């Protein structure tokens, strides 16, 4: 046997041994991180399979109470470090070493490709730099026109369907948020309701499918997943969503080429198409990925925030009254559209929004990949490649940072109170270099719709906040309908 043949035989064996030795080292190191009891080798895998969106959310809250800011879950050879204390979260979010999203987000790849949410490394940096101008002040001013127009329609819709809204406001809010995001992202201002609802339903079905995909460990391996019913269903849903987006892009391109067709409003899609026209290295596939990402991140999160805002304001009439008084002072009781100057003056309303997002963060967890081995502030060594799962929901309910954490108290966000705590104790839009690029967009949208509703209606509670049953499939929601009584002023 000559030397070359020997090397060819030995190389795979050596690579395998190196891989195994690294895995063994990681297992030994991570044993020091506290963990719930689980089956040897299998770990928490079977427990995950036995949960649905509701029970998994409840189990996660129970584990957060049992441990102190950090714990480990194992799934065969894969370890997930769950973190919910501000100091450890600051280490992760403020660092470029841990800037990449974890493999958890890989389930979105077939749909969102390498959009801003899922991309890594240099691709993410280029996308972030490219998309930042889309949220410039002047562009947001254009978006504010859309927020005002859609709020008028939304308020009118509530007025016509007051009894139905009292039974469940969710469908109305989802439609409003989807309309807003489709107009600002895609430029769609004239499209029938059934098309919107079908598009939204496909996204909802896809997210439910992704939970099942994530829940079953064997779906991590393409050889098994591609043989499953989930794979064929995902393929069809993704194809339909992509076809919708490409059709919108195609129509927008035609509109831009026909100079006699005046563009009424600038959408995010128009900015991306202009970049392409100006010679920026971006193809139609990348444009579609960014628009799809913006629609996904921008409609469900906003919808959830509005639902919880109406619920808590209805349950706290004293807070609602104070917010209404501020709105009346800013608008001088005039029924006109919001301006940027108006929104900047609504400080107490912003406190209400922030406190709602503290209690009910639209994105209850954020997951990153450990880019380099490091030691947490709590003294645990975390090997490179480990999944870092940050629980925003539990972070925001840390009694050491937020006394009486279950209480709804907007005054927590007065400047003098904010100054007493870590900026990483409150991260509804993430934080650090990979924070949410659209947080100003979201705040303007939320303030605008609340102004429209609170100037027209008094909110009265039907259900208590504490009676809500939560579920999480990337976005926080409730199993219960959101029932609020709208009393016309």
UniProtKB/TrEMBL annotation:
What InterPro entries does this protein map onto?
Answer: Cyt_P450, Cyt_P450_CS, Cyt_P450_E_grp-I, Cyt_P450_sf, Cytochrome_P450_Monoox
- Indicate the principal place this protein occupies in or around the cell: endoplasmic reticulum
Indicate whether Cell membrane appears among the record's keywords: no
Enumerate the subcellular locations listed in this protein's record, separating them with semicolons: Endoplasmic reticulum membrane; Microsome membrane
Looking at the Swiss-Prot or TrEMBL record, what is one Pfam family this protein matches?
A: p450
Give an example GO cellular component term for this record. endoplasmic reticulum membrane
Q: Which GO terms describe its molecular function?
A: heme binding; iron ion binding; monooxygenase activity; oxidoreductase activity, acting on paired donors, with incorporation or reduction of molecular oxygen
Q: Does Endoplasmic reticulum show up as a keyword for this record?
A: yes
Q: Which cofactor does it need?
A: heme
Any idea what job this protein has?
A: May be involved in the metabolism of insect hormones and in the breakdown of synthetic insecticides.
Q: What family is this? A: Belongs to the cytochrome P450 family.
Name the UniProt record assigns to this protein:
Cytochrome P450
Instruction: Provide the species name.
Output: Henosepilachna vigintioctopunctata
